[in-house]
Amino acid sequence: MANYPPETTAEALAHLQTAFTDYSLAHGLTVRPPPAFAANPNNALSTAAPVSLYPSLFPRECFEYGRRVQEAYNYVYAAIANDTEWLGKVVTDLAAVDTFMKALFDVYIKAKEEGFAHEWCLGLFRSDYMLHRPTPEDEPVIHQVEFNTIASSFGGLASRVSELHRFLVRSGAYPPTPQLSLESIPLNPAAAELASGLAKADEYYGPTKSGREKGILFIVQPGERNAFDQRWLEYALLENHNVKTHRIALSEVPTRTRLESGSRRLIYTTALAQDVEISTVYFRAGYGPDDYPTQLEWDARLHLERSAAIKCPTTAMQLAGAKKVQQELAVPGVLERFVAQPSHLDLLRKTFTSIFPLDTSPEGLRARKLAFEEPEKYVLKPQREGGGNNVYRAKIPDFLRSMDENLWSGYILMELIQPPPAEGVIVRNGEIVRGGVIGELGVYGVILFRQDTGEPVVNREAGWLLRTKSDESEEGGVAAGFGCVDGVCLTD
Ligand code: ADP
Ligand code: MG
């Protein structure tokens, strides 16, 4: 769209940047500085998170569509996690070619064989989309990039970003711009909604053994830079729900927690040597191989999985978030198995992009040909999370050639989504960069369901995240250093 984001004088821009940065620092829209930046004794320093100076224009209809479809998606992924037969078949094939998937599957099998002790499962999901508009004549639609079932991050910061952009409108720091109004920049409830999902789990867990305090355990990465995003959920839990939280790394699980014999209640010992019964384990770590440097971390994961605490997510839910599952859902006839009602089929499928297996099925063999003959149209994805793992376009053929053909089935081939051109202004480490950008809308979802039947007692949409990256970068990860947290400026 013409004239957006607005151009300003250098003086007006400097004023805006000061207002923007000070608001961010004063309101915890922050991350820990990168290690290369400064010594950070006792983690006393924080720095403004990479954020978009202006909220990005986003078609209101597409935004509302993403929010509307979220409950249907939540239901599907909970149903997949509960479908041992179907999920087991998909993951058994993956485990044969992917050691990480195998280790995760082993945890699932061991805990299942013993019998799960948890009664409820919690999903804090995020479904990610990009606008798809192949030609200027097309109406834009949203197409799904991926569905996250573990460590769906940035809800805390995303809420602060909508407040920041609204503040800049109200305070008059933005130059007069027709698109920028409070009406077009909705307040994003993600932080409060995700916290409320965790609080619901804590409530459904039920009472502790008499006299014992109850709490939620956050499993985090040592040295996490995005810690304040997580802290916002903790503060909302305490302030809105009076629920206490505790944070440890997977490596600390054996020394700080134990299972009560028989009931397998999970007991956490605080720094004050007090015993707390953990209602819910929330994983903000454990999604990739780097989080399991030794067997100790895998043992810790199994220990937590065996416990009676509600897991967000269970290993089954994490496995359901595999990119292979997303590809399988696109196979005709598969989605039917998991939807709550037939009317959801079309609603969900409208967000699908073509995704192909790279195995030796007829479909897979066709896709192998595509990967070599028309790689420009595709992205190749392994079963990994967290950014930086995909292979794009012309690099696909050489990448595939460099490995044993037997391992190809661990990857999926996905058609590239084609977003319309857009401009943006990103502020990262104090530097302002203006240029072509690509946005990715994430919609959060909360679902709490019974472990035995899969029946949900809570299922709702829970706010959103817009991330924006330079259109010169293939990847969009904010934490991985490729993009920034953004907000929507809705257009009709
Ligand atoms: P991860 O689990 O590492 O986040 P994603 O599937 O989200 O993996 O891919 C990482 C990034 O790659 C996305 O944020 C997006 O920028 C880009 N990407 C992924 N799939 C597509 C696609 N089909 N079309 C265009 N870009 C894509
Ligand atoms: Mg992603």
Descriptive notes:
It contains 15 helices and 21 strands. A hairpin with a 2-residue loop joins β17 and β18 (431-450). α1 (10-26) packs across α6 (155-170), α4 packs antiparallel against α5 (99-114) and α7 crosses α8 (227-241). It has helices at residues 10-26, 60-68, 70-82, 84-95, 99-114, 155-170, 190-205, 227-241, 253-256, 295-306, 315-320, 323-329, 343-349, 362-373, 395-401; strands at residues 30-31, 47-48, 51-52, 56-59, 120-132, 141-148, 213-219, 245-248, 257-259, 266-269, 275-283, 310-312, 355-357, 378-381, 391-392, 412-415, 422-428, 431-450, 456-470, 483-486, 488-491. With 492 residues, it is α+β, with helices and mostly antiparallel strands. The relative contact order is 0.20. The mean pLDDT is 96. Strands 3, 5, 6, 17, 18, 19 and 20 form a seven-stranded antiparallel sheet that branches. Strands 7, 8, 9, 10, 11 and 12 form a six-stranded mixed sheet that branches. Residues 128, 130, 145-146, 353, 379, 381, 385-387, 389-390, 414, 416-417, 440, 475-476 line the site of adenosine-5'-diphosphate. Residues 128, 146 line the site of magnesium ion.
Low-pLDDT regions: none
Shape: globular
What binds here, in terms of ligands, is:
adenosine-5'-diphosphate, magnesium ion
Chain-averaged pLDDT: 96
Number of strands: 21
Strand-residue proportion: 25-35%
Biggest sheet, open or closed, and with what strands and sense?
Answer: 7 strands, antiparallel
Q: Percent of residues in helical segments?
A: 25-40%
Distance between the termini: 12 Å
What's the number of helices? 15
